Amino acid sequence: AQKITQTQPGMFVQEKEAVTLDCTYDTSDPSYGLFWYKQPSSGEMIFLIYQGSYDQQNATEGRYSLNFQKARKSANLVISASQLGDSAMYFCAMREGRDQAGTALIFGKGTTLSVSS
Amino acid sequence: DAGVIQSPRHEVTEMGQEVTLRCKPISGHDYLFWYRQTMMRGLELLIYFNNNVPIDDSGMPEDRFSAKMPNASFSTLKIQPSEPRDSAVYFCASSFYGTSGMGSYNEQFFGPGTRLTVL
Prior knowledge:
The structure holds 2 protein chains of 2 kinds.
Chain A: E1 4-5, E2 10-14, E3 19-21, E4 24-25, E5 32-39, E6 46-52, E7 60-61, E8 64-69, E9 74-79, E10 88-96, E11 106-107, E12 111-116
Parallel strand pairs in A: 2-12
Antiparallel strand pairs in A: 1-4, 3-9, 5-6, 5-10, 7-8, 8-9, 10-11, 10-12
Chain B: E1 5-7, E2 10-13, E3 19-24, E4 31-38, E5 42-50, E6 53-56, E7 65-71, E8 74-79, E9 88-95, E10 109-110, E11 114-118
């Protein structure tokens, strides 16, 4: 079974609108972290936001917020006020275990976001 | 900060040739990861090191792949002999085990990647 599932291969949104990118995860470990990375066409991986399994509040970083629903095992990324520069591939990733530095990220297949003017 | 440095950025080689990819992690980071990205398989871990010691190499596809980390500031991923199915983008990432600043959740910082094409 896939550990990280991103069901939307492509999303389209107009500038200034909000968009939600879906991510569901599967783990039996009570300690885990969820990450979102952005990969523009230039290819680099850019960290966006993090949510820990014990965090009580949803993470926010500027225009990015994470809608964390632990019981549903979902960690959706919300981008408010989309900009043309947000057009990219977005990856959801998970790291399991208490010693999170010592484990690798498990990535979803990604969602391509296209923002139009 | 220079970030994670990878070289070369692009590599085109012929089947059967040896390929060596290089990575310099962020100074002070004690974990180094090698990932591979392909259209078919997405991003997958190949191997990772802690304090220069390989911890998990279960993602290394086969004996043609080898990785070393001779010191804290340098790692190599070698493919010998290379095959067309090795064509991919290879990322190096580093992190540290700490509780300050951005490292409080031990984010992995990625290098720009090496795009490998094996003809």
